[in-house]
Amino acid sequence: MIIEKERAELENKREFISKKEPLVSRENRKTVGHPIVENPRMTCRNVNVYYGDKHAIHDVTLDIGRNEVIAMIGPSGCGKSTFLRCLNRMNDTIDFCRVTGSISLDGKNIYDKDVDVVPLRAQVGMVFQKPNPFPKSIYENVAYGPKIHGLVQNRVETDEIVETSLKKAGLWEEVKDRLNQPGTSLSGGQQQRLCIARTIAVGPEVILMDEPCSALDPIATARIEDLIDELRGNFSIAIVTHSMQQASRVSQRTAYFHLGDLIEVGSTDQVFLNPLHQLTEDYVTGRFG
Amino acid sequence: MDTNMNPTILLLTILFLSVMGFIMGKRRSYAVANDAGGISELHSRPTYYGSLTALWCAIPALIIFSFWLLFESRIITDLVISSLPDQLQNLPADRLNLIVNDIKNIVNGNIVSTDSNPSMVAAAEHYKKLNSLSHVSLTVIVIVVAIVAMLVIQRTINPKLRARNHVEKMIKYILIACSTIAIFTTIGIVLSVLYESIRFFKVIPLTDFLTGLEWSPQMAIRADQVGSSGSFGVVPVFMGTILISAIAMCVAVPIGLMSAIYLSEYANRTFRSIAKPLLEILAGIPTVVYGFFAALTVAPMIRDTGAFFWLDVSSESALAAGLVMGIMIIPFVSSLSDDVINAVPQSLRDGAYALGATKSETIRQVVVPAALPGIVGSVLLAVSRAIGETMIVVMAAGMSANLTVNPLKTVTTVTVQIVALLVGDQEFDSPKTLAAFALGLMLFIVTLILNVIALVVVRKYREQYE
Asked: What is the number of other CB atoms lying within 10 angstroms of the CB of residue B16?
């Protein structure tokens, strides 16, 4: 019902915006819109990803701005998760995966030979599709990152960082009396916020989220979405999502991927209300995907 | 009188009949189906009607067959005894047993210990006659039962017969029967060990057995023999078992665990597919081979090395047995731990990597703690194996029950002592022999407790991350 209603509203809005230019045809796979922004946090230039012989990502150029939420949408298997995993080199753990092109964080190419992947992942944190708290206590889950990076020297500092991280993740009030219980004892939504707190605790600059709400119920989803909006003040966030409603609710910019190509990038309103590319329009109007 | 059927041949006949039953049942169902208007009119596929016939043909016949063989010898013996002359019948039980043995020997054509007297020969003839009669009647009854069952089922085959469901049900009962046999065998073993142990504890008090510090299981057959009183203190024997098991675990746990971690986390797929089976071959080497490896290679090596450092090392030492046993147990630890480590979800590793943990940090701080209960389970199973191991210690650890924790001395273990007590001539009611059952019971209880702990730990582990 709600989706129907939203779709109707979208259609209404679309009528107000008159289309001057004809849409880019489906056959043209060059990125349209504005992939490049001023003063970006991360810049990706001509990124190609290969899984063995399979060419998974074709020549993607995209910037991630400061203090923005960029949503990556597209049908299943379009490469949006693969691209996201390139941004903190999580693909390194897959033997047969190869990345070409350049991805820079604050002007430094993260694929350079002299870059250590360990501090990189502290700067570019990641939240996964399925909540994956460690089978340790809630406290230990959050304290783990700061401990391995030597961000804390003693118990007092650890307590402090655990508390602030949990507060930022909006979980403190719910768990402050049971920090010693296992993280796995929390509900799904709480677990996901614990994972976000864990990521925040190491003080990243960018947070990558790979469908963070797809395993959660609508209420838990709403809480995570509110949280993402609050976190924007301190971090850049790249979120992969299957839900177009979610993309339009949380993001400022949206990138549409299709079969390994980055088709269109633009402000979220523009991509959803007035797409430039035929494929984007097909997807956001629900013609497929 | 060679018309009687060998039990093996009879068994094959039952099998043959049941195959016939399958074919006939299937054929019958086709015929019935054609009358009813096509194969789709049948409730089940024809194979099920065939299987149903075959099962009904074989199972009752097999049950009769096995019970007959179970009680046949007993009944025939009783009948033969009752036909013996009175003066033989009234002999005490153990003498009677000897006579029955002689009769059986005559039947089998063996040389008899006593001179064969006419009444014995007559009894043997009687025995033979009864035996062949029994076989003939068994053959007839079993075949008749099989054929009758086959024919009855044939008759009842009609399109509405739910053969599929019946077969399903019969399979269930067959499975239940098999598991029942396994359970009752276990219970039987436990009860017999328990019974003999209680007989032992009537002679040697339980407290003496559990707290005694000396083990020399000598029991005089005559009262005037030297060393007529033995001592049955189990402590030195158990200390030996614990010492050797401890040495074995010191070898097996670090090597097994680390190779498991290497195989599951670092090794590439090709190496793993070669190395894992190779490691498991260690578990396939017969323990007797490990035993002489320990006794002939490792133990002299340790003795010579010790002599070089002016150490007094026995030529049979706990260290040699423990080291070799540890190598034998490596695959138990590594294979089980490997499975457990692989079961830790990839998402946990991803979570740690995404926080910037290195590979070894991830393994030490996330993967191994998550797998720890399972690893503990595998170690406890390995301990049970070490405690129960016999061949290696028999060959390499020695026989003398020293109460020591020095691994360079010769010690003995529970299993070695059981072997020592039961090898050779013995009386079955002497405490010396019964002590073996008491030791066995102790060993059984200890390994049972360890297995239970392992099971509980492993079960708890399943609830960890879900």
From this structure: 11
Neighbour-count burial of A118, counting CB atoms closer than 10 A to its CB (0-12 exposed, 13-18 middle, 19+ buried): middle
Q: How far is CA B141 from CA B16, B57, B61, B150, B245, in A?
A: 16, 13, 8, 14, 55
H-helix or E-strand containing B104? helix B93-108
Least confident stretch, A25-34, B186-195, B222-231:
B222-231
How many C-beta atoms surround the C-beta of residue B136 within 10 A?
14
In a domain, A194, yes or no: yes
How far is residue A289's CA from residue A75's CA, in Å, rounded to a whole number?
A: 5
Of B268, B353, B356, Cβ closest to residue A202: B356
Q: CATH number for the domain including A156? A: 3.40.50.300
pLDDT tens for A189-225 read 899 999 999 999 998 999 999 999 888 888 888 988 9
* Number of domains present in the structure of chain A: 1
Q: Is A118 in contact with B268 (Cβ distance < 8 A)?
A: no
Distances (CA, A) of B313 to A62, A241, B251, B305, B412: 73, 70, 20, 9, 15
Give the alpha-carbon dihedral of B416, B421, B425, B431, to 10 degrees: 180
Distance in angstroms (rounded) separating the CA atoms of residues B415 and B241: 8
Report the pLDDT value the prediction gives residue B3, as an integer from 0 to 100: 44
φ and ψ of B418, to 5 deg:
-60, -45
* Maximum separation of any 2 CA atoms in chain A, in Å: 62
A253: which 2 tokens? 């910019």
The ipTM estimated for the assembled molecules is 0.85
Confidence band, pLDDT 50/70/90 cuts, at residue A1: low
Residue-averaged pLDDT of chain A: 88
Asked if the C-beta of B367 comes within 8 angstroms of chain A's C-beta atoms, the answer is: no
Instruction: Write out the residue range of the structural domain in which residue A151 sits.
Output: 2-284
Contact A35, A62 (CB under 8 A): yes
**Interval A49-64: pLDDT, tens:** 999 888 999 999 999 9
Test A122 with B350 for CB contact under 8 angstroms.
Answer: no
Contact A121 B353 (CB under 8 A): yes
Among the CATH numbers 1.10.3720.10, 3.40.50.300, 3.20.20.60, 3.40.1210.10, which is that of B231-462? 1.10.3720.10
Residues from chain B that touch A135, judged by Cβ atoms under 8 A, are 348, 369-370, 464-465
Identify the DSSP state of A277.
Answer: B
Three-state SS letters, A103-168:
EEECCEECCCCCCCHHHHHHHEEEECCCCCCCCCEHHHHHHHHHHHCCCCCCHHHHHHHHHHHHHH
- CA dist A26 and B410 (Å) reads 84
From the CA of B376, how many Å to the nearest CA of chain A? 16
Domain ranges of chain B: 7-161, 231-462
Pull the structure tokens for residue B215. 């083990």
pLDDT confidence bin for B1, thresholds 50/70/90:
very low
CB contact under 8 A, B358 and A118: yes
Q: In A, what residues contact B, Cβ < 8 A?
A: 88, 90, 93, 95, 118-122, 125-126, 128, 130, 132-136, 144-145, 148-149, 184, 195, 198-199, 202
pLDDT (tens digit per residue) in B354-387: 998 999 999 998 998 888 888 888 898 899 889 9
Query: In this structure, is residue A198 part of a structural domain?
Result: yes
Residue A289 within a domain: no
